[in-house]
Amino acid sequence: MLVFPPAALRRKLAGFALLAFAAGTSLAAEPYQITWVLSDWAPNFIIRDGKPTTGQNDVYLKLIIARWPEAEHRFMVMSTARSTLELQRGSQLCRMNLIPTPSARNSLFSR
Length: 111
Known about the structure:
Residues 1-28 form the signal peptide. Keywords: Signal. This protein is of the alpha/beta class. It contains four helices and five strands. A hairpin with a 2-residue loop joins β2 (47-48) and β3 (51-52). The chain is globular. The termini are far apart.
């Protein structure tokens, strides 16, 4: 059974999808590449063969990908701890379901 998030979270996800779409459409010369971080962490992510399937965040990710067809979407499977370190190092990754705490805002989120 799929459980949908509260309306406030859906609005935030819709805003993220819109920003992601806008960023992708502004680069017409080359396909925009985005690397999504996946963690095999049910029920949020359910990974098979390195790709998202039916987890809650997998569904959101598939909705974003469907609205952003001109981008090349890649997937990397790694733990939350490793992806946090990679983001702090400046790796160009995108991860669903990070919580924007005051300490994380400086290193984990785009400015």
